Amino acid sequence: MKQTQRLDKILAHVGVGTRSELKRLAKEGAIYVNGVKVKDSGMQVNPDKDIITVNGGVITYREFVYLMMNKPQGVVSATEDNRDRTVVDLLDEEYAPFEVFPVGRLDKDTEGFLLLTNDGKLAHNLLSPRKHVPKTYYAKVEWEVNDADREAFSQGVTLDDGYETLPGDLKILQTGNEAAGIPSEIELTIMEGKFHQVKRMFQAVGKQVVFLKRMSMGPLGLDPELALGQVRELSVEELSALRNANENQN
Question: What is the mean pLDDT of residues 44-63?
Answer without folding.
Answer: 92
